[in-house]
Amino acid sequence: MRILLVEDNRDLANWLAKLLRAGNFAVDCVHDGVDADHVLSVNDYALVILDLSLPKLGGLELLRRLRQRGSAVPVIILTANDSLDGRVIGLDAGADDFLAKPFEFAELEARIRVQLRRSNNRAVAVIRCGDLEFDSKTRLFRLGGSDFALPPREHAVLEHLLLKAGETVSKTQIRESVFDFEADADPSAIEIYVHRLRRKLEGSQVSIRTLRGLGYMLDSHEDR
Question: Does the keyword Phosphoprotein apply (predicted)?
Fold first, then answer.
């Protein structure tokens, strides 16, 4: 999943991005409100982590513009001001959650998981398709009852397909979910990751189908 981190403190931004990437998220970092407004207008994200004190364009105005464009992407605000009035203003502007600085990364992770479950209409933490399971708390897969470890990019592709199990997902959608700004976004890379995943899923109850000209679909053999 691809996250946008909007934070002008570069040391904090680098620290958060490193930890999020270790958790198999693709992370784009921007450091001012104008750049953030631009990338939000041209890219789709699973979630936004937004500092309020930004140069060029404040976080609240950025959030208002985002909601005025009709975006429902979950937004977690990072703020040094955790007053009641501040939370009310942020919620009225369209925020989904708040986290006061300083904070523990484990708490931010938990809040991210909650927002992602809500945005994907998932009431439970474990997502299943056939004998494939994904625990959104640990962000780990199990296949046939055993741990199913994957390299980061393959992990991200399979997670995206599993969240959309039974639906057609285009290469563009997968690429935008898996690659951040700094990654090599060659479209042929998606084909390579899907090919590798197919081999690793052989013998299981799930497979990745190619729908020519449309994209891919993950489904269970039992559902056919």
Answer: yes
* Fold match flag (2-119 vs 126-223): no
Q: Report pLDDT digits (tens) over 129-154.
A: 999 999 887 888 999 999 999 998 89
Nearest CA among 186, 22, 48 for reference residue 30: 48
Span 64-120, pLDDT tens digits: 999 999 888 999 998 876 666 667 777 778 889 988 888 899 999 989 988 888 877
Under CATH, to which class is 2-119 assigned? alpha beta
At the top level of CATH, which class does the domain 126-223 belong to? mainly alpha
Query: Where are the chain's structural domains?
Result: 2-119, 126-223
